[in-house]
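Researcher: Sequence recovery benchmark, item below. Answer with residues only.
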């Protein structure tokens, strides 16, 4: 970086020395960061590019009310996310711990809670992360790779055919019988097509 005055060289050197110190401190602990920074800047050291010169300084760090509010919100968000990750890990391995944590905060709920609900939630999260989410991602990728006007339709047909072949009662329960019949009928090869004749020849 080119400098035209000794002052600009000093500013650059101060930034070079200060940044590694201040970035290690939380914004809410400006007093601690200030003490650490002054301990570093208080030791005279040569300035790069200025022969026979030494730099020592003292800094005062301040935090505006808006910057403090932003830092407090950031800290609160990080704490909340850390707690959610902890709960997720416990749900995977030991849902009873989540129940105890809930009862510790709300002991009056003990008459209305059932550990089975927490066990079901644990299984749902575990199976969802291992199976359902990857499957849905696969279907989404299929839709994107195929022509826009056909991608979603083909993905829907795959799901409907799978449900119709394995769980026909589920199709009826959710009122999807007519939709499944129509979509799957449209995808069948016309009568007399080579595929139809080949299928008939097998029997």
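Model:
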């Amino acid at each position: 970086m080119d400098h035209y005055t000794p002052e600009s060289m000093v500013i650059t050197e101060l930034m070079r020395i200060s940044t590694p110190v201040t970035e290690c401190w939380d914004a809410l602990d400006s007093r601690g960061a200030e003490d650490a920074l002054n301990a570093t800047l208080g030791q005279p050291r040569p300035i790069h590019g200025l022969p026979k010169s030494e730099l020592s300084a003292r800094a005062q760090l301040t935090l505006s009310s808006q910057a403090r509010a932003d830092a407090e919100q950031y800290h609160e968000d990080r704490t909340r996310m850390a707690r959610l990750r902890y709960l997720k890990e416990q749900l995977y391995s030991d849902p009873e711990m989540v129940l105890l944590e809930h009862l510790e905060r709300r002991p009056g709920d003990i008459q209305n809670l059932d550990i089975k609900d927490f066990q079901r939630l644990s299984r749902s999260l575990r199976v969802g992360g291992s199976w359902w989410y990857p499957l849905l991602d696969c279907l989404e990728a299929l839709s994107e790779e195929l022509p826009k006007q056909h991608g979603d339709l083909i993905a829907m047909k795959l799901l409907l055919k799978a449900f119709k072949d394995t769980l026909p009662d589920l199709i009826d329960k959710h009122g999807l019988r007519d939709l499944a019949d129509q979509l799957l009928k449209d995808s069948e090869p016309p009568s007399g097509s080579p595929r139809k004749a080949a299928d008939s020849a097998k029997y």
